[in-house]
Structures are given as structure tokens and as C-alpha cells.
Design brief:
- 2 copies of one chain form a homodimer.
- Chain A has 11 helices and 12 strands.
- Chain A is about 40% helix and about 15% strand.
- With about 375 residues, the first copy, chain A, is an alpha/beta fold.
- In chain A, strand 3, helix 4 and strand 4 form a beta-alpha-beta unit.
- The mean pLDDT of chain A is about 95.
- In chain A, helix 2 packs across helix 7.
- Chain A folds into 2 domains: about 120 residues, Aspartate Aminotransferase, domain 1, CATH 3.90.1150.10; about 250 residues, Type I PLP-dependent aspartate aminotransferase-like (Major domain) (Aspartate Aminotransferase, domain 2).
- Chains A and B meet through helix 1, helix 2, helix 3, helix 4 and helix 7 of A and helix 1, helix 2, helix 3, helix 4 and helix 7 of B.
């Protein structure tokens, strides 16, 4: 199989990720923070280590501000619902994933207003609209770092600066970028950072996190046993306990740590350069084909390693089906859980075929993908 | 290490659980339900298989009514907060875990009333109080199947019958029993069943589920991408999608399935008989020691395989520390995230030392545990 669906989840995982998970399952998967015996303490220490590794990667000073979650969606829900209350206003964009749009729409019923900034046809954000959308009751700006449809990279540091200057909280959805692009929560004025563990961070499904800026106090999504202040009925204030009720996904968290360590060994910038070169080559070749319409910035420096395209007039699912069944190539068709993004680029009816590359994708694989596209095109 | 902390998490896991997770990670960990290519479809099918296996184990007719969660705490939060709204009344007991008490207490602020039934000193439920606690606005009864402190088994079928007759929903917390005791959602009138995957179901940490009776419509805890009805801003109604936003923990879910298959191969009743015999022997021996106070029913037929005890007058953490450091025995001291249960049995100050046994515990190990207790006792 040629796997061009890294935007959904990276595959295969680095060997050390799986090895780390096996080690966790076999050697110390007692319940962390729930007892004082050696195995439980080891689990606690290993999770703390993982917290330090993840925090360090994003320049998060205090690892306790990092909350492990099931996935990025949970992290986004915690960030959005933890901050916003009736009477507040939130700003986001038309390029967001449903994991941002649906919680924000659900909050409308509870009296939270929203403004969804219409992005440009290539997915880019008209920066001046951010400023224009700010109201007196604006409490939060939620912005994806990169569209999961077109890959369009968003100016998060610039938006972060505006938010900070205006006293507004800033939540970044790093679903498509964490692990590959530099993200520094201090320099980029990020108050809340949500990310999945299983995409470019190369960890397993079942892992993700939310960073919460020190001093920021969120409403909890869930309450329960934390192994701390057990005599209290009220969820404790101490972090990360406050937001991490119940038994954590110990093997998943260890796998996430191993994913980051793999990236650090390879060099994040090297991986980025490699993936940029794949996108550059792919864009260059498909742009020559007059029956192909490519969406997004069409510039490997302006988009994460995903490319959305269509065969003119053909349903995206049909193309994906042919790629899969005839060429054994895995891509993702359809709406990608981002309806407004499709409306923005004009593909709400047709959907789009998304090619997304990853750390393990080779130039030869991309070449085979291009060949397959040409073969399909020659038979149209 | 002698591992007597199965009540926190089962350890070690059966070999097939780890093998199943490795298979998932290596062979088909594409993103289920997010694309139509073969690897994504295989992930979807494997998760559906797992859903069928888990559902079948609890006599859940429609696997789609089974919602995979991060842990039992998330399942309980979804069940409790999904059902209750301002003006409702909920009944629970003093033997519940903080994963039940804390969400219920958090809902007080939103106008949800509660009654916490005071249990007897051995943790048992005075059944007549259930009926007496029902009000006109009672919407839900939440009951643990077994106390995580004393092991006391609760009459869930009887309480379920009362609830059904009175038109009240019934949520069972099966954290300490799922996998070991027979649970039939139909026969026991269970409308909502919450369980962790990583205790007696022998799956990995990071897995758990909530069963929701057909036709019961809950408020969501989280909204996001579901891979279905992507054009809608509103969370879809179809199950399990409605309650499973974002990428699932595919390897964890496969591990949970493998855990259940291990139980089915061994025979659930055989495992139960084995663990009952361990408790019987342990209770028999420690009851002879006049410096030991044992809590709970003191009857292997009336308690799940956990035994709470104290060395008279000594702090539970001190005893656990000695067991760990001198004898390499892992137990859990302290409050076990169940403050009212400790108040009920009279150990809120002292805490208690919990010995909890599991499928892999042998009679020889229990004998060594008893020897250790006697050695400590002889030096008091």
C-alpha cells in the first residue's frame, strides 16, 4: 500500500513508539498516581517524563500545565468549553475542523456568540478581519495552525500577538502541524494548544493533549478520581489532576513520548524539509495536468504536507476508490470534517481528494502516486 | 513483585492483549471511519468487531449502543451529565467512587438535586432506602456494582427493577466487576453501564465504555469530527458517532477485545471461582489475627476480590510502605478516591490497606502476602 493519509494518522509508527508501548504494557503498567508501590511509582515517573518531553518540545515551561487527553478533539472541547461562558464571544475561521466548529455551535445554545471569519479561496486568513471581528465581549480566538483540507498555514504568531494585545485568549489547533512545524507557546502568544499524539507527533491513536497557560483556570469537562485530595467532593485545583480524572492511557502516553524522541533524533527540521520537498515535487507535477484542479496555496512553504485536488467534474470518492482498488493507494476523499473549508474553496458538493504525506513517505512513492493520477487521467 | 493491586488495574495483561495491540499498531492503524481505503476500512471493521465482542459479553443487543471512552470516569461523566438537567434529582450511595460523587456534586451548581444513601458499616446497601429516596423529579439512580474499597457487592438487579418500575433511569458503575461477574443489561434493567477496559476486562489502560440503552438520547460531553454528516454543524444523532468524536484509541480498543476473548477462553466463571477462593483463604487467615481489622462483608461470595484492612492503630500508608519496601508487595493504601465509603466504614482518618487480587494471582502469592502480614504483626 502507498499510504498518503498521514493527515488522518501517521503510519507506520516508528519502531521505538511500539517498543515503548510494549515496555509500558509489560513492565510498569500499574496505575500511576493511585498507590505508592514501586510499579505505580514507576508508571507515575514515566508519565511525568513523558509530560516533560512533550512540554519541552513546545517550550512549555511547566509540564504540569500539559493535560493528556484521548485525542485532539477532547483537548479542543476542554479548551473551548473550559473558557467560554454565556455572554462571551469567540472568533474562529471558515477553515476550521468540525472539532472546533461543532463545540462552538453547541455553545450558541448556552448564549455564547461567535464570529466565523471567511477565509480566502486558497484557505488563507485575511488578517485584518481578526481585528475587525473583535468585540467588547470577545474572550477567545480559536485558530487552526494548518487547514486539514488545503494545508494552508495560518499566521498563528501574528494572531497570537493581536489576541495578547487585546487581552483575548488564544487557542491553537495544531492537529496538522504539531511535530513538524516549530511551535513555541511563549513566542507565539499561545494560551491554549491542542494537538493529537498520533499524527505528526508519531505517537499512537488514543493520545493527545491540551496545554493550558499558567494561571488560566478552566471549567472541567469531567470530574472524578484524581488520586489527590480524595476527601474532597470538589475537583481539586492542582494540575494536571484537575483535568485528568480517572486512569490515564499509560501506554499511549509513553508511545507519544517515544514519537517525539524519534522526531528529535531525526531532527524536526530535517523531517519538515523532507516533507516540503515531497509536496513541492507533487505540486509541480500535478499542476501540469489540465484535468486536475489543485486547491490551497500551491506552495510547499505555505502549506503543511497535504494537497487537496480533484479530477475536474469527477466525484472525489470515485477517484479515491480507483486509487485504492486499482493502485493500492490510500488517500482521503469527501468532506474531511471541514464543511466550511470546502465551502470556502468551492468543493462542498464534489468533496476533494486529499493526498497527505508524512515522515515515512519517499519521493519514489510520490512519483508512483503521480503516475497513478496520470494513468487515471489518460483513461478519462 | 507480588502484585495485589488488581483493583487499580490488572497486571500483567494476558499475552494476546499485548499481541493484539501490536497487530493493530503495525498492521491496520489507519484512521477508522475517516476514509474509504483498505487500511481505514480494516481499522473500522476491527473496531466494529471489538464493539460486537464487548456488547455480546454484557448481552447488549445492538453494538452501536456501546460508546468507547478513555476510561470509566469518562463513561460515568457522559452518563451522569448526559441525562441530568436542572430540576432533576439523582440518587446514589455513600460507597461510590469520586468518579460518581464529583460529577454529581458538580451538577449541584446547575440545579441538580441529589440524595446519597448512607450504606451500612460493611458497605451493604439498605435496599428499602432506595425506594424511600425516590422523589417526583428523580431521573437517575447511580450505583456501583461493587465498592472499590470493601468489595461489597451491590444488588444491582433488585435496584434496577425498582428503577424500571418507577420509570427512573439506572446507571451501573461496573469498575470493579466488569469481566468477572455476570452482567446482563437486559435482565438487570440496566439503562447505562460504565466500565473500564483495564481492570477485570484485562484490556489496556486508555480503554473503557458506556452502554446506552436504545432510544435514550444523551447530551454530549464533546462534539467534533465523526466522519459522518460532515456538512452539519450539529453533532449527528447516529450512534456510536454522536458520542465518539475524534480519532478513537484503536490499539486500546483492540486490546480490550482481546482481554474479553481471553476471559471467554478461560471461562469467566472459572476466573471468578478462582478469585473467590483467593479471597476466602485470605479472609480466613487474616481474620485470625487480633491486630488486624478487616472491613466489608468478610465473605468471598458477598465481595469482589478486594479486601480492605488495617493494622490497628497504624497508618495505612505506613503499612503499605513496609509491604512494598521490605516484602516487595504492591497494595494500595489511603482513601481510594472514595471518601464517603471510608466515612461509612470508619476509616476516613486512618485510610485502609487494600489487597486486591486478579486472574493472575496464585494461592501461593496470597500465602506469601499473609506471611508478610504476620511478620509485620510479630514486630509490632
Amino acid at each position: 500500500m502507498l499510504y498518503f493519509d498521514h493527515g488522518a494518522t501517521s503510519y507506520p509508527k516508528p519502531k521505538n513508539v511500539i517498543a515503548g508501548m510494549i515496555r509500558a504494557l509489560e513492565d510498569f503498567c500499574a496505575n500511576p498516581g493511585r498507590a505508592g508501590h514501586q510499579s505505580a511509582l514507576q508508571a507515575s515517573r514515566e508519565i511525568y517524563d513523558a509530560r516533560e518531553v512533550v512540554a519541552g518540545f513546545f517550550n512549555i515551561k511547566d509540564p504540569k500545565q500539559l493535560i493528556f487527553t484521548l485525542n485532539c478533539t477532547e483537548a479542543l472541547n476542554l479548551g473551548i468549553k473550559g473558557v467560554l461562558k454565556s455572554g462571551d464571544h469567540v472568533i474562529t475561521t471558515s477553515m476550521e475542523h468540525n472539532s472546533v466548529l461543532r463545540p462552538i455551535k453547541a455553545l450558541e445554545k448556552e448564549g455564547v456568540e461567535n464570529t466565523i471569519i471567511q477565509c480566502n479561496k486558497d484557505g488563507s486568513l485575511p488578517l485584518e478581519k481578526v481585528d475587525q471581528s473583535i468585540q467588547e465581549n470577545t474572550r477567545l480566538i480559536v485558530l487552526t495552525h494548518s487547514s486539514n483540507l488545503t494545508g494552508t498555514l495560518m499566521p498563528i504568531a501574528e494572531v497570537g500577538k493581536i489576541a495578547r494585545e487585546r487581552g483575548i485568549l488564544f487557542l491553537v489547533d495544531a492537529a496538522q502541524t504539531a511535530g513538524l512545524y516549530p511551535i513555541d507557546v511563549e513566542k507565539m502568544y499561545i494560551d491554549l494548544l491542542a494537538a493529537p499524539g498520533h499524527k505528526s507527533l508519531l505517537g499512537p491513536q488514543g493520545s493527545g493533549f491540551l496545554y493550558i497557560k499558567e494561571g488560566l483556570y478552566l471549567k472541567t469537562l469531567k470530574e472524578g478520581g484524581t488520586g489527590s485530595k480524595s476527601q474532597d467532593f470538589v475537583q481539586p485545583d492542582i494540575l494536571p489532576d484537575r483535568y485528568e480524572s480517572g486512569t490515564p492511557n499509560t501506554p499511549g502516553i509513553i508511545g507519544l513520548k517515544e514519537g517525539i524522541q524519534y522526531i528529535q533524533q531525526q531532527g524536526r527540521e530535517n523531517l519538515l524539509r523532507h516533507e516540503e520537498s515531497l509536496v513541492k515535487y507533487f505540486l509541480q507535477e500535478v499542476s501540469k495536468l489540465d484535468y486536475i484542479e489543485v486547491y490551497g496555496p500551491k506552495d510547499c512553504k505555505k502549506q503543511s504536507p497535504v494537497v487537496a485536488l480533484n479530477f475536474r467534474g469527477m466525484d472525489s470518492s470515485e477517484i479515491a476508490y480507483i486509487l485504492d482498488s486499482v493502485f493500492n493507494i490510500a488517500v482521503r476523499p469527501g468532506l474531511h470534517c471541514a464543511p466550511l473549508a470546502h465551502k470556502t474553496i468551492g468543493t462542498l458538493e464534489q468533496g476533494a481528494v486529499r493526498f497527505s504525506f508524512g515522515y515515512s513517505t519517499t519521493m519514489e512513492e510520490v512519483a508512483k502516486g503521480i503516475e497513478a493520477i496520470k494513468t487515471i487521467g489518460s483513461e478519462l
